[in-house]
Every structure is written in C-alpha cells, then in structure tokens.
Amino acid sequence: MKITTRGRYALRATLALAKLGGQDGTSVPVSTLSEVENISSIFLEQIFFKLRKAGIVTSVRGPGGGFCFARPLDELTVREILEAAGEDLDFVSCDKQTEDCDRLGFCLAHSVWSEVTRLVNDYFSSVTLAEIIAKNKISGLAGSSAGSRRAEELDDGSIGA
To answer: Does residue 102 form part of some domain?
Structure first.
C-alpha cells in the first residue's frame, strides 16, 4: 500500500474544509482551499469531484459557491476519504484473492499481508474527521502551520477581501 499524492491531498483538503466551516453547511470555494493548503486548484477540483460522487461533499454553484460536507464529520472516516479519492488500500495485490497468483492457497506470507491490510483498514475506518479536528485543537496543532495561519487571515477578512 502506498497512499498517493491524491489521497494525501484529499485528506488534507477535507480537513481544511472542516476547519473553514464546510461542516456547518457553509460552502468553501476551491480557491480558498487551494490557497490555504497550497494545492493546485485544478487538482483539488478533480479530488472534490470524486468526493462529491462518493457522497462525502456537496457542491454549491455560483457566487459564494464551493463545497461543504454532505454528512456530519463524526460519520466521515479516513478510509472513506481515501477510497473516494481512488486509493487502493491493499498492501499487496494478492490480498484481493485473485487467481492471478500462482501461489494462492499455499503461500505462507499471504496471511501476514491480509492481516496487515485488515489492521490498517480497520484503523482508517475507526478515525473520523471530527476526531482528527478535535485532537488537533487539543494539542494545538490546528493553528500551527502557515496554511492554518492563512486560513485564519481569510476567515477574519483581513486578507483576500
């Protein structure tokens, strides 16, 4: 398993969306998310198209448009975000139990890879966006990055108005 840039950016962007108000129905433009997270707006559009298709976010068109969450943050897991972004969460292809493997049925290592895949997927399924936001507020990480400072500036209207 390797989480690609698309998967990492999908998680970062959804967390930024949550921090900027997308959880309360307030739409956040892709341009704002792009600036706060320093991610190409074109790439974010592609990611959010997939997230919308998966029912994670909804979009609002026109002036003041953008994206907001379709469900509460405590119902959205890291696994859902990564899978919606197109990540393959299997460690090795033989975890899919296909007949492509000529060792299937007697490979001693298969059970190791299957168990690791299960553990990681169980973990990703157990972590919600709400928990990540809450944990970072408690530890003080939520406001420590330049992107977070930029989000606060945008939020208070002092820059970018």
So the answer is: yes
On whether residue 159 sits in a domain, the answer given is no
Average pLDDT, rounded, for the chain: 81
H, E, C per residue of the chain: CCCCHHHHHHHHHHHHHHHCCHHHCCCECHHHHHHHHCCCHHHHHHHHHHHHHCCCEEEECCCCCEEEECCCHHHCEHHHHHHHCCCCCCCCHHHHCCCCCCCCCCCCCHHHHHHHHHHHHHHHHHCEHHHHHHHHHHHCHHHCCHHHHHHHHHHHCCCCC
At 110 the pLDDT is: 78
CATH assignment at residue 101: 1.10.10.10
pLDDT one-digit tens code per residue, 112-141: 888 888 999 999 999 999 999 988 876 655
- What residue numbers bound the domain in which 70 lies? 5-150
| Domains in the chain, number | 1
